[in-house]
Amino acid sequence: MSAQFGDQLIAVLPRLRRFARGLSGSLTDADDLVQAACERALARQHQFQEGTRFDSWMFRIVQTIWIDQVRSRDVRKEDGDVAEDRLGSDEPVRRVEARLALDEVRRALDCLPPDQRTALLLVTVEGLSYKEAADTVQVPVGTIMSRLARARIALQMQLEAGRGGRRSARNAAAQ
Amino acid sequence: MQQRSDDRLIAYLDGELETTQRCEVEAWLDADPDARRRMAKLAESAHLLRSVLDEAVREPVPDRLIAAARGETPRRLTRAEIVPFHRRLSGRVAAPRPWRTGLPVAASVIGILLGSTASYLGVGKLTLDGAAGRPAARETAAVNNLWLDNAAGYFKLIVNAGDNPPVDVSATGDPREALQKISQSLPQEVRLPDLKPWGLSFRGARLVVQEGRPAAALVYTTDNKAIGPLGLIIGSSKQPDISPTFDRRQDVNLLYWRHQGRAFALVGQADIGYLWGIANDVAWQLDAV
After folding, report:
1. Superfamily designation of domain B63-285
2. Count of structural domains within chain A
3. ipTM, 2 dp
4. Chain A residues 17-76 within an 8 A CB cutoff of chain B
5. Which of B26, B209, B225, B280 has CA atoms 20 to 30 A from the CA of B120?
6. CATH code of the domain containing A163
7. How many Å apart are CA B269 and CA B155, to the nearest integer?
8. Is A1 in Cβ contact with B70 (below 8 Å)?
């Protein structure tokens, strides 16, 4: 392995962890995913084309491994099933309202089909352009656009629904 | 139609529209309060999503992932095994200069501000014993060694100074103004990376010497003891580009890299995972990837 390749890989680790966390919804699974992606990248470093985006190449590897895992394990999560090591569960205690909102985002993300979740994370969180995201997952730009639109509308609706639920609960508690 | 409208709003938010299309959307938003409301909600949900996941880029990267990226097994990488730069250089050009923890502050200042210049100039004249293999590489390594010594020495001064870090220009007013003053003495303008997401506040800047040229040492402090005070040195360099590389001077961690004529060193006592994360952030903000 060239030292330069390893350094590039280390430099992109924080973003890979963020991406993997968004995909898997779990801290532990995300790091396992990133570790597997590093191992695969090192084994296939000759396939990386100089002059192309290294981060996109790594995102593709992470996404491919995750899709394989989803297919083989069928890890469909049930609504409201929040595992102990879910995102941010180890963060300092914050205001309950804020945490509920963040929990809703996580739940909404988990409810999205894998393809939409990937598009949403690549564009909205990782800041890739539609073209770059399309290249990363190897689909046409139009496909990314439609997946992204469906994902963002679903996310927003889920958050709206959660907010409504919280309001109702607060009103009930106040009475 | 509704779906199509939202598609357009989303593309607008993502900066994917051409100028004409953007103007059309802006006109539409001006005229339609409902569209404005929908766009605000879409923007808010995107912001929340980023908030949820951004923690991941600010946490220390677990050692096992760094080991995996280097093709090592996790057992092989422990913090104690970070090999000091001195040991990595076989047949060094100069005798190792062990740190003395009680080094007087005044001696450090002189060593940093004057010594490095003289040392750097001397490097090129050294005869490299047994260096028939790679003299250029050895010279580069020696340059690295000297300025990393100085960077670590300067960091020690910051730590020793406590709440009053030794800076030439304090960031009491506008931090950018402070940096502008420092930039006037430098061969190229230095931009200030925003490290507030890490809880780091810019406290001021100071001129230091790096590779025989003036460089800016930016000082950041934080209440977070896991990160502690941090120094970021930005200067120019004639050495070839290198990717982020770790080194250590006693209890001081250094992460340094060079990119297109600029040299960077992040210096602190924070865990190496934090330094990787912060360096990554700095590199993206300063176009130094």
Report:
1. MucB/RseB, C-terminal domain (3.30.200.100)
2. 1
3. 0.78
4. 17-18, 21-22, 30-31, 34-35, 38-39, 42
5. B280
6. 1.20.140.160
7. 9
8. yes
